[in-house]
Design brief:
6 helices, Rossmann fold
Length: about 240
């Protein structure tokens, strides 16, 4: 694990954009394609906008294949849709071919949507390991990542796959890649900034293991690399930097 700590959020975003382009270029050079699972939320939106503008000519975007680490169980035209956010911030500006985009089919019931999405992931990788070149992750105030929320059954998945997750407090479903699938990735990058994330960062990185309370502790790549991109505010409660 590597901690990359910067003074400001803008510096964090620029550093992760550089990293994205480097990993993507290496994957394309090696395999002719770059598979990446995107995260949702306001923080990655700024990253995608940066990639679509300042970095638009630094990667062969026709060879990038986009998946989603998780998705809300809402229509694809909903303001809450991770797909819609990425579409506006990244796909449209870069003229990404729809065949390069693998969105969760939220017209299905959550369990069926998860099953179908897992099948699409398996078909993409064919008979090779289900190992994305890069998975982008965020971190919630409650130490969740993707849709691996505290005290949900998905935390105990042991086989790489995609699961539906019901959040009783919100009475909503989400569809998420589980920890075993995320941990198969070649590269994992957490994007976390802001003082409001400092406690969660401390819990995940420095507290005793307690996956029920701090699900992001589950993210430990098997053979790949994990990078944390933080600003000083998000890293402010870490004892070791």
């Amino acid at each position: 694990m590597s901690l990359n700590i910067y003074n400001t959020a803008d510096e964090v975003l620029s550093a992760l954009a550089e990293y994205f382009v480097i990993i993507g270029s290496e994957a394309i050079g090696k395999n002719g394609k770059f598979s990446v699972a995107l995260s949702g939320g306001s923080s990655p939106k700024k990253l995608y906008e940066l990639l679509a503008t300042s970095y638009h000519d630094q990667l062969d975007w026709e060879k990038v294949f986009f998946f989603f680490g998780d998705e809300r169980n809402v229509p694809q035209d909903s303001p809450d849709s991770n797909y819609l956010m990425a579409k506006k911030a990244l796909f449209i500006p870069l003229f990404i071919d729809p065949h390069q985009i693998f969105a969760v089919d939220t017209t299905l019931e959550p369990k069926e949507a998860a099953k179908k999405y897992q099948e699409e992931v398996e078909q993409f990788f064919d008979e090779t390991e289900l190992s994305f070149d890069l998975i982008l992750l965020g971190l919630g105030d409650n130490s969740h990542t993707a849709s691996l929320f505290p005290h949900t059954p998905v935390l105990h998945d042991r086989v790489p796959g995609v699961s539906e997750v019901f959040l009783p407090d919100q009475q909503v479903y989400r569809i998420t890649m589980n920890a075993p699938l995320i941990n198969e990735a070649q590269n994992i990058a957490f994007l976390v900034y802001g003082e409001g994330k400092a406690i969660a960062v401390h819990h995940v990185l420095e507290d005793e293991e307690d996956i029920e309370e701090y699900p992001a502790q589950l993210i430990e790549p098997i053979v790949g690399q994990i990078q944390w991109f933080l600003d000083e505010a998000a890293a402010s409660m870490l004892d070791e930097k």
